[in-house]
Design goal:
The complex is a heterodimer. Chain A has one domain (2-49, 90-258). In chain A, 73% of the residues lie in helices and 0% in strands. Chain A has 10 helices and no strands. Chain A has helices spanning 2-29, 31-43, 55-69, 74-77, 91-118, 125-146, 159-182, 186-202, 216-249, 255-258. Chain B is mainly alpha-helical. Chain B has one domain (11-54). Chain B is built from 3 helices and no strands. The chains are: A mainly alpha, B mainly alpha. At the A-B interface, α1, α3, α5, α6 and α7 of A face α1, α2 and α3 of B.
């Protein structure tokens, strides 16, 4: 399992670095906007589940699962949330965000390193930038077109359907990009474009009504902030993978070779 | 191109290589899915700001 161990090792370092960078950017760029939106959310009377009829049912199921696993007296103490345990506002909430960033950063890095190894590996930081761009396109750009990043209290369609569409779009876009980059055949290139366009023709699940108390300017600012912070995250992730892997192997493949 | 000199696990067979890379990728997807997509309330609340900041479907 040396290969597996090496992949995990590189992903852990890259995910840690990129996750910390992303958490710092979020603290300044996106979290203040989320907190602003929560003021509107609370003024409008808690979570806006009216637009998502299936959501309360799932929440009830989730709460039952939690309470059977661990009797939670936190329910009464939970600040501003009527749905189970939540971290206290301030440092605790920030700390959990940082942990989430690092853990999923390592998750993204595992996928990036494993997939890129199939194609010859990320040889240096410059190749890493291009792999990072691909990751950004697959995980942020494509799903974000149909499902723009939402602020709390914004109307949205059923959660499960949106999650299914999100994953399907990620898979289709990744497959399309892979075909474009690594197969030299016109029919496959056409198939690749079709794969990348198809999720948007099918269309993301949309809410019945787009009415919200959130100002449009605030939402637009949030979409820009999310997209840009994710762009930097992916570029850092790819570049760090390239650097760490280069140190590991002691050699670097050229871009031309790895795209062959 | 001499792939053996640049790959991370030069000595492993191609089948084992595929399995190990697939395992790593699935581990990554599992981690992302748990933190970013699970419906457990405590996990949702802990990673709430993160989910919104990543544009993951939330609520």
């Amino acid at each position: 399992m040396t290969l597996f161990r090496n992949v995990v090792f590189i992903a852990a370092i890259a995910g840690l670095v990129a996750g910390v960078v992303l958490a710092c950017m979020q603290a300044y760029a996106t979290v203040p906007l989320i907190l602003k939106a929560e003021v509107y959310e609370q003024a409008g009377g808690g979570h806006d589940h009216a637009a998502a009829p299936a959501a309360p049912v799932e929440n009830a199921g989730g709460t039952m699962a939690i309470s059977s696993a661990a009797p939670a007296p936190a329910e009464a103490m939970a600040p501003a949330e009527d749905e189970g345990w939540a971290p206290a506002d301030g440092f605790e909430r920030f700390a959990f965000s940082v942990v989430a960033n690092i853990v999923t950063g390592i998750g993204f890095a595992l996928v990036l390193v494993a997939v890129s190894e199939f194609a010859g590996g990320i040889g240096n930081w410059r190749q890493g930038l291009f792999w990072g761009l691909a990751g950004f396109a697959v995980f942020t750009l494509a799903p974000g077109l149909g499902l723009p990043p939402e602020l709390p209290a914004m109307p949205a369609a059923d959660l499960v359907q949106r999650q299914i569409w999100w994953w399907a779009t990620v898979v289709a876009t990744a497959a399309g990009l892979g075909l474009l980059a690594f197969r030299r055949s016109l029919p496959l290139a056409v198939l690749a474009v079709a794969l990348m366009v198809a999720p948007h023709i099918v269309g993301a699940p949309q809410p019945d009504s787009f009415e919200t108390t959130i100002p449009e300017g605030l939402h637009h600012q949030f979409v820009v902030a999310v997209t840009l912070t994710n762009l930097v995250f992916w570029l850092v992730l790819g570049a760090v993978v390239g650097v760490v892997r280069g140190r590991f192997t002691g050699t670097a493949t050229s871009l031309r070779d790895s795209f062959a | 191109m001499n792939t053996a000199s640049v790959s991370l696990g030069a000595s492993v067979s191609s089948q084992s290589r595929f399995m190990q890379l697939a395992l790593a990728a699935f581990l990554g997807i599992f981690v992302m899915g748990f933190v970013g997509f699970s419906h457990i309330d405590a996990v949702h609340n802990a990673a709430h700001d993160y989910r919104h900041s990543m544009g993951f479907p939330c609520h």
